[in-house]
Amino acid sequence: MQRSYSQRRALWAITRASFKAIFANPSAIVFSLIFPIIFVLIFGAFGNGGGPSYRIALEKGCDTSNAFFLALKQNPQIHIVQYPDTMAINKDLIKGKLTCIINIRVATDTSQGPRLTINTRSTTASSNTFSGFTQLLDYSRLKFEASLSGNKTEYVKLEKPLISSVKQYRQIDFILPGQLGFSVLFSTLFGIAFVFFGLREQLVLKRFYASPVNRINILLGIGTSRLFFQVINVVVLILFGHFFLNFTLQHGAITFIEMLLMTVLMLFLLMGVGLIFSSVAKTDANIPLLINLFGFPQMMLSGTFFPIEVFPKWLQEICHILPLTQFNDAVRKISFEGLSILDCWKEIGILVIWMGITYAIVVRVLKWE
User: Which domain holds residue 267?
Assistant: First the structure.
């Protein structure tokens, strides 16, 4: 009696063969694992996040009409950030996104000439930038007082800064989530797009299509192998960052698992994008161009290497709708802030919308021959 065709065995065979094919290509290991580890070491362990730049906020009631503040504001190293309320200021200060909060007050006693008193408050999370800012502030004070002709008295008084002890926000806590996104983005797109394009050009998909194997099993088999491979890379990157570079996992194993779940969600989205590129590309030379057009703007604008707050407001609005921005933000909230994956509902919602649009396009453009 003839045995019925087993779709389960066919799915397993396709998944296993596809997974072996990944390791047959050394570039897959280099681009998805070795490069991100190198970037993590350069930017997270040995780097200082670029040149000196100080983001400061103004205390409520801070005097901004005096000459010293106007001169300080012209310094290109200082970026004054506007916030809607005090809660938002303190939130960024605790995360280390702000160097400090500054308050400039005009002295009431003007018998010896007008004087300014400057109070600053910061946290230990901003210790990597606050010491440099205090030196810059003192230098600006001396330069300003020297410019006052005939006035040898102290014009600006710097009070002792108030520094609160909070959870330390290290450079690696920003860099590693970005490198996770970098690894997932490019290795998944290149892997899926080139694999499906090659299988179609070699008529392998056409032969599969003529076989008893369900088309969905073909997609699931190749997609599952890529998914499993990427999850392994993410596990290695997280553990490497945690044990060797002191990357923060706020709730230990729970945080680790929730980061993996966010990665899986992002992978499903990117696999759909890879399928689109493999179907619309006329030749294999077009695939890198399509991937770079999609990937490089996100790599630069999604907070992979530096915060998106450095961009103009109008550009930040564009940054916030990119899928890689949502992934990076969610992973940082989960890892450092200790939020649950359910607390990242906004980021997940935007990714789901992207996924819905992506797979709606996949259904229309996917080619088997």
Answer: 11-46+170-365
